[in-house]
Amino acid sequence: MSTKLQASILPTTLAEFLDWDTPVDGMKYEWHDGEVIAFEKMNKYHLKLIRLLTRLFAQTEAFQAGGILIAEQDVMLTGIQLRRPDFAFFSGAQIDRPDREVEPIPAFVIEVISPTDDAEKVEAKRFEYFKAGVQVVWSIYPEAHCVYVYTGIKAVSICTDEDICSAAPVLKDFSVEAKLLFQ
Fold it and tell me: pTM score, two decimals?
């Protein structure tokens, strides 16, 4: 957790976290079983990714059907885990579902891994995603210029250079050459 915050001002329950006036300190915060977890917020590299991925997503059938690929959306994985993936895909059907009590779980998420991210926490989050019902996870490593494309907890493809990163089976028509993510 960020050393910028004093423990006395941190929320101690999920309800407090949801009502918390998040500090403006360059960090984003997630909730995990009573713990506030701090991550670096999006930067200029993320903005370029948002632009590229948004343009690619706008060409998909899922976009035409009302789906969205959104940055840093709150996702309640379980009653004790609120995560903010860098990008999450929600289908039009999930968005239009009349039941407001049901929290939608994205079928596809993208995490951009920074050099300061703790490897064990990155892995734990990936396991949480799959346990909650996420079907495809991209872990983008900008420093190494590679993308780990997970279609299951143990099913992974490592994409570099001209390799194609695909969001199939969730989004069969959403893919990109790995090298384009690092320009």
Answer: 0.79
